[in-house]
């Protein structure tokens, strides 16, 4: 079986460090390693509209922002297919068919859906499109027969719904769809990067993000105010690294080379943590180092992003070509789906002939 990757993001704003460490960085590595036959990366504008239906302009404006972040991070349209969800009508068709194979109670049990509903204050009035998000996501994955989905651990419940739907479809009709596996970030600390305020998740709506496109000054302003150990009041006080956002980010992004290049007083992060725990190390020194690490990582992306920003029509051309390539694959899968479901009426010559014979009295 061909190894196929599918992954994407909702274009509701620029991408941040949580997106990068959770999935985007791994996508670029996988693309460059070339071990996968195909890679599809898409902007999930349909899913973004499920809780932004009254503000489509938000999606319109951020579509290109996300595309720029993809390209700046190193995704190459010659090596992966970049496309826009709404431009693939086969996705809507497959979503409709899959909805018949899952119950409302099963969707309600999904912990990711529960969390998202609570976060958006949808408890009293849940948009049906938003409620069906897991089915829509399953269609995204299965339409392209993805074997692998790089994502954060919060998406595992969604992937389990997809696998259940694949099994149900294949048992009901025939073996057409493929069960996907999740590919979690290698760095366990980075699987759910907290916000700069120390809250559980980095989120655009909470305003606690560092964006991939932030300037060096903007990054410093955010790092400088980052949540640390509230009991570490004086430099000499022993400090806690657990729950300390600065050290969580250092776990996610710093390398031994960063220490060699920017803070040779320490060989690695373990030595820095030991010093902080003993006391005698101020938060500001740690924040300055983290700021250097992050900006050193982001600067090449800023340069590439600026280059791509000079020709926005070409960004749309890249996406248009990606849409066309994605539709070719989507059409092939849907031909198989309709055949399995026996709703390929006009392609089924045997059906047509049998009905002709029947009505002719043969």
TrEMBL record:
EC number: 6.1.1.2
Gene Ontology molecular functions: tryptophan-tRNA ligase activity
Catalytic class of the enzyme: ligase
Record carries keyword Ligase: yes
Keywords, alphabetical: Aminoacyl-tRNA synthetase, ATP-binding, Ligase, Nucleotide-binding, Protein biosynthesis
Protein family: Belongs to the class-I aminoacyl-tRNA synthetase family.
Name this polypeptide is given: Tryptophan--tRNA ligase
Organism: Xylanibacter muris
Gene: trpS
